[in-house]
Write a structure and sequence with these properties.
Strand order of the largest sheet: 6-7-5-8-9-10-11-12-13
CATH superfamily of the largest domain: Mur-like, catalytic domain
Number of strands: 20
Distance between the termini: 17 Å
Helix content: 25-40%
Number of helices: 15
CATH architecture of the largest domain: 3-Layer(aba) Sandwich
Strand content: 15-25%
Structural class: alpha/beta
Number of domains: 3
CATH topology of the largest domain: UDP-N-acetylmuramoyl-L-alanine:D-glutamate ligase
């Protein structure tokens, strides 16, 4: 735990007592703050009280006595309307911050030179965070990973000058971290997301830009218009900017050339690493993730050999194109995290011959946008509520069956793929749907897939433990 000493002896209000909120309340108390915490969920309040956290309804509190208000990132700050606690804090002119801001203050106070890599973007944050931390740790660096992935940031070990922090930051967390100042900040990409919480794309992009703008070195993906413009703005403002591109060669920056990760300086390219044969990093989206991780690790002082070694040993994230096992020429891949068509596209684009397990609770738009990948699909196995609609979209373009359950889909897909004589065949769970019709969440769906696959006689498991956000 990182004691929040920067608020020692001060009164602090805290709202939101989920996992990260409870951890933050403990860190504040450990640092000597006088904390008053609350939540709209009575069960969360009861759990916090039982854990020794001082709780009281903040609607009746004397807000003029609070030095700060720590808000859980899941609670609305601006849109669709501010939470009632936000209104009370603003009326009393109390600063509103989150746990990432507390972490930044502690780092500045106790170990300002501790390497701190912060990662954001619409897609790929978790993989890039896990990959960066893995490469650093595999090179022998003392590495802590957390934030919006895995551990709450205030539960990490306290800052020391040689301890490396790799922190995933959501837009909600950035919005609550006004002094966010990583030594290297990664902005991967931007597409419309969370507009219900931010109001407009312009505001959403502006929040993400703040992470890069506060960084010692800004690492920015320039394959979308928003991020390309951000990189230009930051450079004109005098910021050190490293551009990355998964699609285009760059005169200065890092880019993908097939499987090679290339670093160019002044128009002179050199290969940093290759993704050839690394199954956990297939696809253009993972090329971008690897480029960002490589750029951050170069900034942290790693050699090309250390980066290549770390990339090769990366096991991947659970439920994100996770290679579960192989039987003969058949590879089994768990991409349960793909809960809509856009999220399923990277996996379908990564394999030439797919036995596709899809379906669940359908999202708006269905799978029409995936039509360009239909020639890659040898056969589809449809499950859950979406099966009738998906079958209508597939029509005569793709052979399919309505399997109903995930267990039946795995059994039938494995048998059909085993008979495929065209080379490597991939049994892919990439549902393009939410899980809630048959499973509590995508993790449980992915675990059910993994269990069904590992029960296949003669299967050779791939890899070991996977970096898994909680």
């Amino acid at each position: 735990m990182i004691p929040a000493t920067t608020l020692r002896g001060r009164r602090v209000a805290l709202f939101g007592l989920g996992g990260s909120g409870l951890a933050t309340a403990r860190a504040l108390a450990e640092g000597g703050a006088d904390v008053t915490a609350w939540d709209d969920n009575p069960d969360s309040v009861a759990k916090a009280t039982a854990a020794g956290v001082a709780t009281a309804d903040l609607r009746g509190a004397d807000w003029s006595s609070f030095a700060a208000f720590v808000l859980s990132p899941g609670v609305p700050l601006t849109h669709p309307k501010p939470h009632w606690s936000v209104d009370l804090a603003r009326a009393a002119d109390v600063e509103i911050i989150g746990d990432v801001e507390l972490f930044c203050r502690e780092r500045r106070r106790h170990a300002p030179d501790a390497p701190f890599i912060a990662i954001t973007g619409t897609n790929g944050k978790s993989t890039t965070t896990a990959l960066t931390a893995h490469v650093l740790a595999s090179a022998g660096r003392d590495t802590q990973m957390g934030g919006n992935i895995g551990r709450a940031v205030m539960t990490l070990d306290p800052p020391t000058p040689t301890r490396h922090y790799v922190v995933e930051c959501s837009s909600y967390q950035i919005d609550l971290a006004p002094s966010l100042d990583p030594s290297a900040g990664i902005l991967l990409n931007l597409t419309p997301d969370h507009l219900d919480r931010h109001g407009t794309m312009q505001r959403y992009a502006g929040i993400k830009e703040r992470l890069a703008a506060g960084s010692g070195t800004a690492i920015v993906g320039v394959d979308d218009v928003h991020c390309a413009q951000i990189a230009d703005r930051l450079e004109k403002a005098g910021k050190a900017v490293v551009r990355i591109s998964k699609r285009l060669p760059l005169a200065d920056g890092l880019f993908a050339d097939g499987a090679r990760l290339v670093r160019a300086r002044g128009g002179h390219p050199e290969t940093v690493a290759t993704l050839e044969g690394i199954g956990s990093l297939r696809g253009l989206h993972n090329a971008q993730n690897a480029l960002a991780a490589a750029a951050a690790c170069i900034e942290a002082g790693l050699t090309a050999a250390e980066i290549q070694s770390g990339l090769r040993s990366f096991p991947g994230l659970a439920h994100r194109m996770e290679q579960v096992g192989r039987k003969g020429h058949v590879l089994f891949v768990n991409d349960s995290k793909a809960t809509n068509a856009e999220a399923a596209a990277p996996a379908l684009s990564s394999f030439p011959r797919v036995y596709w397990i899809a379906g669940g609770l359908p999202k708006e738009g269905g799978i029409e946008t995936l039509r360009g990948f239909f020639p890659r699909i040898a056969r589809a196995y449809l499950i859950g509520e979406a099966a009738p609609a998906f079958s209508a979209t597939l029509g005569e373009a793709v052979p399919y069956e309505i399997s109903g359950t995930l267990a039946a889909a795995v059994e039938h897909a494995a048998a059909d793929a085993a008979k495929d004589g065209s080379g490597e065949a991939v049994v892919l769970l990439s549902p393009a749907c939410a899980s809630f019709d048959q499973f509590r969440n995508f993790e449980m769906r992915g675990e059910a897939f993994r269990q069904a696959v590992t029960a296949i006689p003669g299967l050779e498991p791939i890899g070991g433990s996977h970096a898994q956000p909680s």
